[in-house]
Amino acid sequence: MEAMTALLRILNSLPIFWLLLSLPAVALMRGYWVGDIIAMDMLHPTGEFSARFMIVAMIISPLITIFGNRGWTSWLLRRRRSLGVAAFGYAMLHLVFYIIDMEELEPILAEFWAPGIWTGWAAMLLFVPLAITSNDASMRWLKRRWKMLQRLVYGAALLTLAHWLLIHDGMTGALVHFIPLFMLQLLRMIIIYGRKNKNVVKADSPPASVTTE
After folding, report:
1. Is position 129 within any domain?
2. Which sequence ranges are marked TM in the entry (predicted)?
């Protein structure tokens, strides 16, 4: 029993969680280092992992709205910041290997305004303030503005989806990743809207009359 408790404690530790998040990057970098993978072939997996971690981080709030505060939703909530930073890290890898693949500044600038390209740059631009402020000090300093800033993730998600759809010929991969996010966010909005309407109805209802005979 003690051994199981110790194992769970290790698995639940943030350093181990960060190690798990980094494993795909380690495997990809090893393949690139030994020459099994070229820079161009690094673009799709790094971008995909970035989108995956972003999506997982974004579905945590809908899951809490739907299922309430449970052990597993609280576990996910405590790791949401790590997932968001990991999404940014893989996006940075994606950008680095894009620059390596393009080799020179001129071709990068030449295709900058192509829809499939500028959407990726714009998503990255929104990712930067999210990553920079993913710490307790920023939360204390920004206070209520911190939550407003974090809403940039919705714009980043839409731009990431557009980038994915425009860069690749098929839509299946992007939709498989993003439709669950869209459905959960929609369900969250419906639940929140229903709760607000319920509270409004309660507030508008006249008090029960008391009659005596």
Report:
1. yes
2. 7-29, 49-69, 81-100, 112-132, 152-168, 174-193
Residue 46 resides in a domain:
yes
pTM score, whole prediction: 0.87
Among all chains, which residue has been given the structure tokens 């199981």?
4
Instruction: Read off the pLDDT of residues 163-177 as tens digits, 9 standing for 90 and up.
Output: 999 998 788 999 999
Q: Over 117-172, what HEC string results?
A: HHHHHHHHHHHHHHHHCCCHHHHHHHCHHHHHHHCHHHHHHHHHHHHHHHHCCCCH
For residues 20 and 26, the answer to whether their CB atoms sit within 8 Å is: no
Q: Cβ of 68: how many Cβ atoms within 10 Å? A: 8
Gap between the Cα atoms of 69 and 85, Å rounded: 23
Asked, for residue 111, whether it belongs to a domain, the answer is yes
Q: Is residue 36 part of a domain?
A: yes
Q: What does the radius of gyration of the chain's CA atoms come to, in whole angstroms? A: 22
User: How many domains does one find in the chain?
Assistant: 1
pLDDT, tens digit, for every residue of 143-194? 888 988 999 999 999 999 999 999 987 889 999 999 999 999 999 999 998 8
Structural domain of residue 35, as residue ranges?
2-189
pLDDT tier, 1 (very low <50, low <70, confident <90, very high otherwise):
low
